[in-house]
Amino acid sequence: MLTTALTRNFAIDHPIIQAGMASDSGVTLAAAVSNAGGLGTVGSLGRTPDDLERELAAVRGATSRPWSVNLATFDWSPFAATLVDVAINARPPVVTLSFGDTIPALEKCRAAGLQVAVQVQTFETAQAVVAARPSAIIVQGNEAGGHTGLRGTLSFAAQVLEIADGIPVVIAGGIAGGRGLAAALAMGASGVLMGTRFKATPEFGGPRTGHLEAQRHAIVANDGDHTVGSTTADVALGMRWPEGIISRVLANRFTEEWHGREEALRAEVAVQTQPFGWTSAHNNRPENMLNWAGESSGLVHEILPAAEVVRRTVAEAEALLRGVGGVLG
Ligand SMILES: Cc1cc2nc3c(=O)[nH]c(=O)nc-3n(C[C@H](O)[C@H](O)[C@H](O)COP(=O)(O)O)c2cc1C
Hints:
By secondary structure, the protein is an alpha/beta fold. It folds into two domains: 5-206 and 300-327, Aldolase class I (TIM Barrel, Alpha-Beta Barrel), CATH 3.20.20; 223-292, no CATH class. It is 42% helix and 15% strand. The protein has 15 helices and eleven strands. It has helices at residues 5-10, 27-35, 49-62, 80-89, 103-111, 123-131, 153-163, 178-186, 196-199, 211-221, 232-237, 253-258, 262-270, 277-282, 306-324; strands spanning 16-18, 40-42, 67-72, 94-98, 115-120, 136-140, 146-148, 169-172, 191-194, 227-230, 246-250. The protein has an eight-stranded parallel β-sheet with strand order 1-9-8-6-5-4-3-2. Strands 7-11-10 form a three-stranded antiparallel β-sheet. Bound molecules: flavin mononucleotide. Flavin mononucleotide (FMN) binds at residues 19-22, 43, 45, 70, 72, 98, 119, 140, 143-147, 172-175, 193-197, 199, 292-294, 296.
């Protein structure tokens, strides 16, 4: 049993949070992780307020354990402000916030009596978030899949641990199993958050499998060397993310063709009349679709049920931590 401030404060069995991964992480994945003793998360990015309300009602029926809802708090995020209100009304056990200015949403959720974990991408933001005293702070390194910042996980996490002032620290980016969890706990963190590892589960995407099956297999096939962290994917989607935020996808035909040619891509996207028109027309085949995943793909060797990911991660970390005392002279 790995007991930390995170497991105690959030009333979960294991110090593992499943990342909210936009609308592809819904009730099926969140409930599977929470029922296995971790903290499952429903993603909100790409959902309408009605869709989020339905999903949160469903997760309440699917698990009696704590779960969370993830909110991407930046101005250009569709429905950003409304989704915060929808989340608060659902009374989730935990809210996770990330990107842009998280502090107004943190204060709003906390005023409503909710526990809030905030994901940060820079040390400067970490300092401001620590001063605002969230329930936990999630340090996100650049190895991460999906949208992320520019800091490498290890030194960034150590720096935030130095200033955390009693706030539980969770480490994200490049962690896909027990080695990462053991390392995080050994350096003083209270848990980990994993996205890429949970994307390669049958529960990711819920009933909407199809193209996601190819993405899961591409994660398993990737050795971790072949990812691209840049703005290219967002340029293709016609989306503007906050300064300093890039997105990491697996390298494929799309990144080969467009990475480094963002201005030409922007010009092609600008003539589209429909939202996401360029990607609908060009990224609809497995070999060139945008597959958000991180360097931890190199640690994902098979598609596993989410509960098994939780079980193996904990078992491996426990075994490693038991052995670690041996290095002390
Ligand atoms: C497919 C995918 C989608 C993601 N979507 C979101 C999101 O909607 N909101 C968010 O805060 N983070 C999102 N992230 C980033 C995660 O919160 C997390 O920081 C990251 O997955 C950790 O690194 P890892 O992928 O190596 O586990 C996403 C990550 C992935 C892989």
